[in-house]
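Me: I hope this is not a bother. Any chance you could explain this protein sequence and its structure tokens? It all follows right here:
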Amino acid sequence: MSANADSLAQAMKDCGLRFLGFRRGTGIPPYVAGMVTSRHPDEGRRDRTVAIDDPAGVSKANADWFELGAQFGLFSADRRFLLSISVPSPGAVDDTDVEGVWGLVELLDDWDIMGAGCAVGVTGSRYGRPAFVMSALDGSVFVQGTVWQDSIGTAVLPHPRRVRSLRDVARLNVGKPYRTAAEDEDTLAWLAEQDES
């Protein structure tokens, strides 16, 4: 998906999201939020999956995503949240040199995250194949959509700052050559915050 704001806004509108612009310097590193599926259920991770060959899989996966998001606080009062968007890294030499940047989005009344969102490349690679990373505005919950061997689904990690293994991985990433200065700044800010919820 192109990082051009106008094309993003149209693609998001097509799947029921209003794009409200990029948000940098949030203190919430998108790459850390993208590690939900590598956390263990003992660390608080919750999953909902649907068989990949279920004819009603997309509608079920949409319902699961919304229920988990609502239950664990992904949405603000005005149904806003952060969605990771790949953009070229500073000084990128080719299309593979990207970093995740948050886009502020608002969930509209008529939405389809797992179907249309994936089909237009906003929340996945093709229809019914999710690959997204989301966060509550305050970073209190991370949400990841993924494809498993025989299912698709949503994984949620509430209170990510309390997860020691996630904090350890974040610390190890600071200063690495594959991390940008902005990612380092967000990581250090995230590590400095305490989860009070």
